[in-house]
Design brief:
With 177 residues, this protein is mainly beta. It is 0% helix and 66% strand. It is built from no helices and twelve strands.
Amino acid sequence: VGDRKTQVFTLTGKCRLFGKGTDVHGEQITIDFASETFVFDAGEAKLSPEALQGTAQGDVFVKSGTGQGSIGSFSILEGQLTTCDLAQPHSLFEVRSSKVRPGRYAALRDARLQVLGHTLFSIPYLVLPLVENGTRYLPDVGQSPTEGYFIKTRISTPLRGDDYVDTRLEYMSELGG
């Protein structure tokens, strides 16, 4: 069902929408060609590295009750994200909601990391940077003659809207005490 005047079309049944590195399947998909956006219900999506502006090495697979997307954003409610293409993925994030901004970040709310069917951890808000050659978010741990034993890391804090601030934390013991 569609309206050529508004350029909004709704597909029902087993629907498929694909293009620009995105492949979406759902029970219902509404496409607004004027704003280049879409909304899907009871669906699955495959986002290629092209759709994520090269910030992923492989495809990202998404399952969700509802979701929406555009050229610069993709979000879901009550869903799963994984890079495993198996019917029963080895690992996945279950989320209450997520928003992916290609080339910027992936923000996951109420995220649970599951590996082989077991929840490893839950976190209320997780921001994964999707900036190529960006700042490393894994802690640096080591020992040097000037710093002693050290750990250096960054923590992201969400701000209003789509922005966040990074805080660098460092702990260093000094030699001899």
